[in-house]
Amino acid sequence: MSSKSGANGKKASTKLPGKVQRLIKPHPHSGEPEKAQIEVEGADHLYRELRVPNKLIDADGNTVKLEAGTEVEVKIEAEAEDAVTSS
User: Fold this and answer.
1) Is residue 4 one of the residues assigned to a domain?
2) What is the pLDDT of residue 5?
3) Tally of domains in the chain
4) Domain region containing 49
5) In this structure, is residue 85 part of a structural domain?
6) For labeling, which of 14, 36, 60, 74 is most exposed (least CB within 10 Å)?
7) pLDDT, tens digit, 9 for 90 and up, residues 25-69
8) Using a CB cutoff of 8 Å and minimum separation of 24, what contacts does 72-76 make?
9) pTM for the complete prediction?
């Protein structure tokens, strides 16, 4: 994922509230990371669950994990020139 922004340095974005529903442990010896299943409020019923690696970096650079029940924000971002004006 590129971190470059458009010519004006701005991106189009939205934030949706969510909640960690459960933690999914990987199969032993699979090498897969633990996943956090997040239910995104406002998403269509069949598409409201996201599963993401349960590994975040805090403001001090420490690796941290989410817990079940944690309230989160899901941010969707696109380059401004890739977004079209809606009416």
Assistant:
1) no
2) 46
3) 1
4) 15-75
5) no
6) 60
7) 999 999 999 999 999 999 999 999 999 999 999 999 999 999 999
8) 72/17, 72/18, 72/19, 72/20, 72/38, 73/15, 73/16, 73/17, 73/18, 74/15, 74/16, 74/17, 74/18, 74/38, 74/40, 74/50, 75/13, 75/14, 75/15, 76/13, 76/14, 76/15, 76/16
9) 0.78
